[in-house]
Amino acid sequence: MADNELSKLAKKGAPMLTLKDEDYERLGCSVPNVDAPVVGLLFGREDGYFMEGENYVRALVKTGVRILFLDYENHRVQLSDCDALVLPGGSFASPEKYYSDAKSKKLTCPSERSQAYVECIFDALRYKMPILGICAGAQLVAASFGLKLFRQKEGYFESPIEHKAKNPEAHRVFLTPDTPFSRLMHNQETMLVNSRHSEFLAPEKVQRELVGIAEGKPLPLDIYATASDGIPEAWGKMEDGILCIQWHPEDLAAHGDQIQQLPYDWIAEMARFAKSH
Predict the structure, then answer these.
(1) Structural domains of the chain ordered from first start
(2) Phi, psi for 259 (deg, rounded to 5)
(3) In 71, 89, 152, 154, which residue has its Cα 20 to 30 A from 198's Cα atom?
(4) CA pair distance 173, 24, nearest whole angstrom
């Protein structure tokens, strides 16, 4: 949807942008019930157009929820009609205070998109609304809890892993045993995932030094999975309705990986619970 089209709709009030019945059918899914929970999905934006990756949409509609697309001007009003929030990945400038690589010359002002993400996160937390963050969305959730991000590894962190990779099977992640996430993912100890991020959440030991949390005391969010170089790959507080994943499970699910569909099944179940309470 072009910016000018959205502006026209917004003149009549916050637009409620959803899928048409034929969209569900095109995706090979049943049209959800009218009383199905509503999951808010923030739009991506490219070249003056609001858009969303089909695999995010496909992973959600498989669960039987309705999707409400959130734009960057009306998101707070739109979110109030939702039962859960999904923050997709993307490339955009985020607040400088979220980063710890002071040597970086890439000093930028927060983008309109990152502002929308942050406002949605804090509104969702205030509403006690479940959140699923993917890639950049996951990073912004972590930063909103006071954890620190790095824009670059060079000069700060040595790693043999290429985290921004084109290969659909980029590297392995190792799941922390006996956590809500490992149980969700059928107690797998390790899995092969894709990886398309250049920025990253600081490893736990570095994180503790940066934010001043002693060993043995809990971080604001639990680390659920890491890569072999120690970089966190999944985190959250699932008992409070927060799950963040650094890779893109929706892409793996689109190619038939049923385990990678489970995070989207989880947010749908959390939405159903929120709607019923």
Answers:
(1) 3-151+198-225+235-276 (3.40.50.880)
(2) -65, -40
(3) 71
(4) 33
pTM above 0.90, yes or no: yes
**CA–CA distance, 18 with 69 (Å, rounded to integer):** 6
Helix locations, 96-226, DSSP H:
112-127, 136-144, 180-184, 204-211
The pLDDT value recorded for residue 3 is 60
CB 224 within 8 A of CB 182: yes
Percent helix, strand, coil in the chain (nearest 5)? 35, 20, 45
How do residues 33-62 score in pLDDT, each as one tens digit?
A: 999 999 999 998 766 777 788 999 999 999
Chain-centre distance for alpha carbon 166: 20
Q: Which pLDDT tens digit goes with each residue over 152-191?
A: 777 777 788 889 998 888 999 999 999 999 999 999 999 9
Distance CA 111, CA 24 (A): 32
**Cα gap 234→219, rounded to integer Å:** 14
Q: Read off the amino acid at residue 28.
A: G
Give the tokens for residue 154. 């060079």
